[in-house]
Write a sequence for this structure.
């Protein structure tokens, strides 16, 4: 039965508390094996052609974008089989928000409307550049935390191709000594997803295709299923 506590605290992760936060994740990963991931990046620059919607064409467009733009933020939510989040013995539930330092809004490619939207949501690009996490250190700690290459973990996304694409680009470069680019074809990409994230990877947006009564975005789907989506609708507090 899911816990009744309403307050969800976002643990904001920067370079100075990265190791501490990953140690917390390592301690509880065995009890919370369902991981939801969401990313923020500097927008989509290349668009697919309306008449070219085959999987390989869609992958080529995603690769073109991911190869040239930067990851800005990763959100992770850990839950157990009943949907409970870690509490660490407190009266609050916790999720994580990792902020990265690589993106420089003054010189790196980006979609201006995406940057404007992120700024309206409170993103401070100057703070990210000065205090954000180094992406290489992030994936190294991610590997030893138990999040990756772990057959007991279930990964969940919503329209998450880009979420995994950014992770695969960095992971394959660092651990497999590949170029800091996505692999050239979709099959190789999917093999790498299985290698790092395992067989239990679910995209809710894709699963909706097999549920005729489910439509729209994540909020609407949650409503249709009668799920508690208060953490998304309320402004969760932050632990910095």
């Amino acid at each position: 039965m899911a816990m009744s506590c309403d307050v969800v605290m976002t643990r904001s992760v920067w370079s100075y508390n990265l190791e501490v936060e990953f140690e917390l994740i390592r301690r509880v990963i065995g009890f919370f094996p369902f991981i939801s991931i969401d990313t923020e990046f500097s927008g989509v620059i290349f668009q697919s052609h309306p008449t070219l919607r085959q999987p390989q064409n869609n992958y080529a467009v995603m690769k073109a974008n991911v190869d040239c733009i930067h990851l800005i933020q990763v959100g992770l939510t850990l839950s157990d089989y009943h949907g409970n989040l870690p509490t660490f013995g407190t009266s609050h539930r916790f999720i994580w928000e990792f902020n990265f330092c690589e993106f420089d809004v003054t010189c790196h490619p980006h979609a201006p409307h995406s940057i404007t939207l992120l700024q309206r949501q409170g993103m401070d690009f100057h703070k990210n550049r000065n205090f954000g996490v180094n992406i290489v250190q992030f994936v190294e700690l991610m590997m030893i935390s138990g999040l990756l290459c772990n057959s007991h973990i279930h990964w969940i996304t919503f329209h998450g191709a880009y979420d995994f694409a950014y992770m695969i680009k960095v992971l394959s470069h660092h651990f497999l000594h590949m170029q800091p680019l996505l692999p050239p074809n979709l099959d190789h990409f999917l093999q790498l997803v299985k290698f790092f994230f395992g067989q239990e990877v679910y995209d809710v947006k894709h699963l909706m295709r097999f549920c005729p009564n489910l439509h729209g975005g994540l909020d609407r789907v949650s409503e249709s299923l009668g799920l508690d989506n208060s953490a998304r609708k309320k402004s969760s507090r932050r632990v910095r």
Notes: The chain has a mean pLDDT of 91. The chain has one domain: 8-235. The first helix runs from residue 18 to 28. The first strand starts at residue 8 and ends at 13.
